Amino acid sequence: MEVMNKILSGSDATNRRLEFPAGSLWAFPMPDGQNSVEFVASDIHEQQWRLKVSVRNEGRYSKPWLKGEWGDYVHQKQLRKGDRVILTMNDEQNGERSYRIGAERKHFGFWYSIDEQPDSAFSSSASTKVNNRGREWCDSPENMFIQNILLAISLWAIFSELGMEAFRFIHYWADDIQFVKDLEGL
Q1: pTM of the model
Q2: How far is CA 172 from CA 22, 103, 118, in A?
Q3: What digits encode the pLDDT tens for the residues 81-130?
Q4: At how many degrees (to 10) do helices 121-132 and 161-172 cross?
């Protein structure tokens, strides 16, 4: 059952805490007199993250926060503003609750799991061809745009026939990749 589905703000991605949606507090019943609940959430690789939902003791609004190893999770997954985090809960047969956490990034209108990003065979082969020729411009920050275009075309190829034609063209003419740089001005 989905507990939280949140697009990260800049603060969520840079601070060591996430502004937790108040509407999701139902999944974390707090005993009387306490203002926090600790729990463990597993990611897709079964790595466990010790997290803590806290609310403030005073004031009109509870203003919940997710802390604990949140900062470590953000760092490991390289999360940034605009990424989406999904927290789910499952009531086990033994009466305990288990939690899962996942992160997604939007590419060309589609959400993809950050842990399961498709590794483009083409962008890897193009990078290898260029690097084997003694130029490492595909790995330089100035030319990350080219890698992003190659990944976009690879994903486009998966979803469309026209994209597949573009993929074939680039794949067979990897030495003449200059036209990709020309797209930067569009």
Answers
A1: 0.61
A2: 53, 35, 21
A3: 999 999 999 988 898 889 999 999 988 788 888 877 544 333 344 333 43
A4: 20
Q: What confidence category does residue 165 fall into, taking pLDDT thresholds of 50, 70 and 90?
A: low
91 and 49 in one domain? Answer: yes
147 & 74 share domain:
no
CATH of the domain at 94: 2.40.330.10
Q: Is the dihedral of CA 5, 9, 13, 19 positive or negative?
A: negative
